[in-house]
Amino acid sequence: MPILNHHPTTPDSANGETVLPRANLVEMFSAIQGEGLNVGTRQIFIRFGGCDLRCQFCDSAHTWFANQICHIEQSPGLRDFSPQPNPVTIPQILDWLNRQDQVGLHDSISLTGGEPLLHATFLEQLLPRIRKQTLLPFYLETGGHHPQGLIKVLPYLDSVGMDLKLPSVSGEIHWDEHRHSLELCHQAQVEVFCKLIISEQTDWQDLKMAAQLVAAINPTLALFLQPVTPLNPRHPVQPPSPEKVLTWQAQLKQICQQVRVVPQTHKIMGQR
Ligand code: SF4
């Protein structure tokens, strides 16, 4: 299967015709955020298709590639999905968002994936259009490995949740990109928190490296340890023992002031 074209969204006026910016979505729906600083809040999720990482614990492999169809919830929280052809346009997203945006229901809009910053050029055009329609804050969920994409989108964002990839858990190494992305958020004074997925295989040196990286930019920044949710009992990536988690939190609190442990609450609730 081909990996998603990462820059499918730039407007074009070849042959005198304006091509509308488009992007591939996986789904749009209303749900309770189950991770990190916003846990328990109600969000409209706009999930973009395509991811250039291959984390060993990934529970969203269905987002890795461009699908022909995306799934759009018609009424907030009712899971009455309607299939729609990809790629989608900005006016379509504005219309679907308008249906979701009932007065007082949502706390924010989650831009998620896959890796939403693969669609930075599209987001740069989409977000100001959404802002004319609703004042709901924008929250970006990213792997923190596309600082150049982040630069485009950052002026429109209210908060960022960044998954720092621990090599011993994810199989990915992106320390320089993580550092650059965190510095950009710090300089722009956009609220940011970091999330570390931890498993039985987590290497303490990775945790220490991540915490030192965060503390060098802002020692008060909230760092979330998220025990991996096992995909199945035979999967090679399993959650760490409670004793290990207690030890790691204590050690990390010597480096960062705010270290919280929060599992994926939406999975516990059996929510999408
Ligand atoms: S960044 Fe997210 S979607 Fe991509 S492979 Fe990792 S966990 Fe999966």
Task: Report what the structure shows.
28% of the residues lie in helices and 22% in strands. With 272 residues, it is an alpha/beta fold. The protein has one domain: Aldolase class I (TIM Barrel, Alpha-Beta Barrel), CATH 3.20.20.70. A hairpin with a 7-residue loop joins strand 4 (69-73) and strand 5 (81-85). Helix 5 (175-188) runs parallel beside helix 6. Residues 1-14 have low confidence and may be disordered. Iron/sulfur cluster binds at residues 51, 53-55, 58, 60, 63, 113-115, 143.
Q: What small molecules does the structure contain?
A: iron/sulfur cluster
Task: Identify the strand order in the major beta sheet.
Answer: 5-4-2-3-7-8-9-10-11-12
- What would the average pLDDT be, to the nearest integer? 91
CATH homology group:
Aldolase class I
Number of domains: 1
Q: List the secondary-structure elements in sequence, H or E.
A: EEEEEEHEHEHEHHEHEHEH
Total helical elements? 8
Q: Residue ranges: pLDDT <50 for 5 or more in a row?
A: 1-14
